[in-house]
Amino acid sequence: MTSTSEHTDSGIRGIPEDLLQALLDNSYESLILVDADGIVRYMSPANDGIYPVPVKEAIGRHISEVSPNTRLPRVIETGKAEIGRGLMIQGKQRIIARIPLHHEGRIVGAAGKLMFMNPEKLRELYERIDTLKHRLDFYREEFQQVYGYRYSVENLIGESPVFQQAKSLAVQAAASNAPVLIVGESGTGKELFAHAIHQISRRRSHHFVRVNCAAIPSELLESELFGYEPGAFTGAGKQGKPGKFELAHQGTIFLDEIGDMPPMMQVKLMRVLQEKEVERIGGKPKMIDFRVISATNRDLEAMIREKSFRLDLFYRLNVIVIRLPALREMKEDIPRIFNHFIDQLCRESHRKPIGVSADVMEELKRYDWPGNVRELRNLAERVMIVCTGDRIDLDHLPMPLRARCQAAAFTPDSAEPDPNVKGSMLKDRLEAAERLAIIDALRTSGGNRTLAARKLGIHRTGLYQKMLKYGIR
């Protein structure tokens, strides 16, 4: 039997009839065979309980009597197979294949095959797929840990034009081998972009090596970057040590906080970038194949004018420059990014999805986020601890943040100034917002001052002093 080609029965005739019958009767799938007139000629035992007519009584009857909504007659009429269709039988979802049967150039019948005998079998398959997916995720994480990168382009969340421009440039940069300089304020995601560029580049199967130039003492930076030979200096290990550039061979080295690199090391780094050659302390030059990505939150051009950063090194590093926007420049993306963090934290903590109220989103968009995306992530982690329900509301936001948001609302752009108040100063506006925050904290705490102080993030004595200052009883 075949759906697309002529049936050749030379092989079938060589199979004993009892073996063919056993094959059909013990089939894992349920099977129905009808002739060209739609008469049921065979039903496997697996069909018992699926259709309203028992298997023994179905033989010889028209298929429409067994399954009123069947499409097997339609398949016989058109000669076209229907594979993987969903079907409701007795209130249960099934997956079915309907196949026309050809013999000697004509359609002699059709076969209907249920892919699963019952929903439990389908659930078993889903569970197996889910298990395999978790294994795949595990091995992906292991792979990323081995090669040093943790993020991909999918982690670059944002739809605002300024962010999309940076993301598009990152994708273009990944296709080349040119040095990349990522600039932006602290917390804007410079390291995340560096990881993503490496992950979609041809070097992704090799190491991503991060170096924080600001965190390593200047006297140790050379040995960290270039390594050392055994006994090269007092305290050097007996086995020697490869430097970060050697570890990044055929991969990517990420020089974070490049603006904090000491001037003497800038000279040596310049030579490495120019010659693609490193020399361990006490060793000989060695050719290394690497791609360099650097990042800074400092103004390198101003540092060049101040003679604290080398101009030649700057030109080596800034072949492709990606400028990351501050979060306050892409406030339309705040809800999307915050929801991403909340969903991610829910998965990590095995919690059900949590919603975020519209009031909370509006409050978050009022704030200027000096700590950028890093500060927003910190807030997401904090509210996840405080929120025990299924939605994040204003009460879950820390009071200092709400006070700053309310202060931000008192701006010339958001409200007309009171003509009766002369010279409404920023200090007055901040105090008004602080007073509102204290009143709100006392209200939500039921008048409990200790709890209100905790919500505000201040000492109880400080709360008493402020209540006295603002005349709050």
UniProtKB/TrEMBL annotation:
Swiss-Prot/TrEMBL keywords: ATP-binding, Nucleotide-binding, Transcription, Transcription regulation
GO biological process: regulation of DNA-templated transcription
SMART domains for this protein: AAA (SM00382), PAS (SM00091)
Domain PAS: 16-71
Gene3D superfamilies documented for this protein: 1.10.8.60, Homeodomain-like, P-loop containing nucleotide triphosphate hydrolases, PAS domain
InterPro entries: AAA+_ATPase, AAA_lid_NorR, Homeodomain-like_sf, HTH_Fis, P-loop_NTPase, PAS, PAS-like_dom_sf, Sigma_54_int
Coiled coil ranges: none
Name the record gives this protein: AAA family ATPase
